[in-house]
Amino acid sequence: PPTAETKVSAAPASDTITIGHIASLTGNEATFGQSGDNGIKLAIEEQNQKNGIKGKKLVLKTLDDQGKPEEAAVAATRLTTQDHATVLLGEIASSRSLAMAPIADNNKVPMISPASTNVKVTKDGDKVRPFVFRVCYIDPFQGTVMAKFAAENKKYKKVAVLRDVGNDYSVGLANFFTAKFKELGGEIVDDVSYKAGDQDFKAQLTKFKSKNPDALYVPGYYTDVALIARQARELGLKQILMGGDGWDSAKLYEISKGALDGSYFSNHYSPEDTSPVVQDFITKYKAAYGAVPDALAVLSYDAAKVAFDAMEKAKELTGPSIREALEETKGFKGVSGSITFDKEHNATKSAVVIGIEKNVGKYATTVNP
Ligand code: PHE
To answer: Is residue 248 within 6 Å of ligand 1 at its C-beta?
Structure first.
């Protein structure tokens, strides 16, 4: 009879390639993780239909970090040292990608963040992290997009800022927006904080009321932003809100119940984009999941595709070899646009501005870098 040992050697690990994914499948930002995982699953299925990579099938291992940076770090260590993941995909949220990045570097496993926009994600102080990449633009650009939109398109003169102080993304984006809006002649009449998960924003909003700004800039995540909008209306504030990609979730509309009508946020993609790559992806995604993909689904699909492309081109399936191939990625045709990594491992891409009308996000404009 076969011993336990022969059973193990009958299915050597080298027959498959493990793709690690770290995502917030639960918690306050659960739609980020769920959409991202859906996008990655589609990319893996497609690749396996083409016989995988270098003749090996891909196996996805997703770990839930519950939206916590410390759990993202634990998951990164586990995927790299125990599960021998060939690449790491994730995270969406910058604070969680920042927790993963040193672990990817130390273990020489390439990490691709689909959507983390904070400048520091691909950097270790002044140096570039050799193993960390992202397929999206960064916040100096995203902050500029909405500052210009506010000052030039909307002719706003006075804006109040409400930032999530425990969130690297929110703090960075608030700073970049502020710098650009001032440079364009605008005034920040107030700048106050909240913490993710807060339920009562009335003190901050009451303060804003007395300053009478033209609009509020709230670069947070969808659950908090939706509550902030509702409480602003309850207090009689009529001003619109502006924000960034962190607003993107079907839950934003569910929770805000129309309180965000007239508001705007910057994002990475619009489902109204009529280009065939976008529309084909939407058709595929709808067939698989019965919903229109959000930016996280699109960017996560693209992150996986870019990883597979580099793995195919790499001399061997080792971290250093895949990393080199990633650095050479040029003009990769993603659903979210063309992807070329610059010296700091960032992708330079356009942003779209989404306006909310009758509780539906509508394409407003595209801003090129
Ligand atoms: N850019 C956000 C961050 O860095 C994450 C995000 C991207 C959220 C796109 C929603 C949509 O934290």
So the answer is: yes
CA of 302 to the centre of ligand 1 (A): 15
Alpha-carbon torsion (125, 129, 134, 136), positive or negative: positive
Q: Which helix (H) or strand (E) holds 214?
A: none
328: Cβ–Cβ under 8 A, 6 or more apart, which residues? 310, 313
Give me the mean pLDDT over the 205-214 stretch: 96
The residue contributing the CA closest to ligand 1 atom 12 is: 93
Cα atoms in the 13 Å half-sphere on the side-chain side of 49: 6
Residue nearest to atom 9 of ligand 1 (CA): 245
How many residues would you count in the chain? 369
Task: Judge if the beta carbon of residue 35 lies within 6 A of ligand 1.
Answer: no
Rounded to the nearest angstrom, the distance between the alpha carbon of 23 and the centre of ligand 1 is: 12
Please report, as a single letter, which amino acid is at residue 122. Answer: T
Ligand 1: atom nearest CA of 249 is 10
Q: What are φ and ψ of residue 156, in 5° steps?
A: -75, 145
CA of 92 to the centre of ligand 1 (A): 6
Distance CA 244, CA 264 (A): 8
Which residue owns the Cα nearest ligand 1 atom 7?
A: 115
Write out pLDDT tens, residues 246-272.
999 999 999 999 999 999 999 999 999
Which residues touch 46 (CB under 8 Å, ≥6 apart)?
Answer: none
Report ipTM for this prediction. 0.98
* 217-237: pLDDT as tens digits: 999 999 999 999 999 999 999
Which tokens in the block code for residue 55? 């003749």
pTM for the predicted model, two decimal places? 0.95
The backbone torsions φ and ψ at residue 366, rounded to the nearest 5 degrees and listed phi first, read: -115, 140
Distance (Å) of CA 112 to CA 122, 162, 170, 237, 310: 10, 30, 21, 41, 11
> Given a cut of 50, is residue 362 above it in pLDDT?
yes
Task: Give start and end residues of each alpha helix (H) in the chain.
Answer: 4-10, 30-49, 69-77, 94-106, 139-148, 168-183, 202-211, 222-234, 250-256, 276-289, 295-313, 319-327
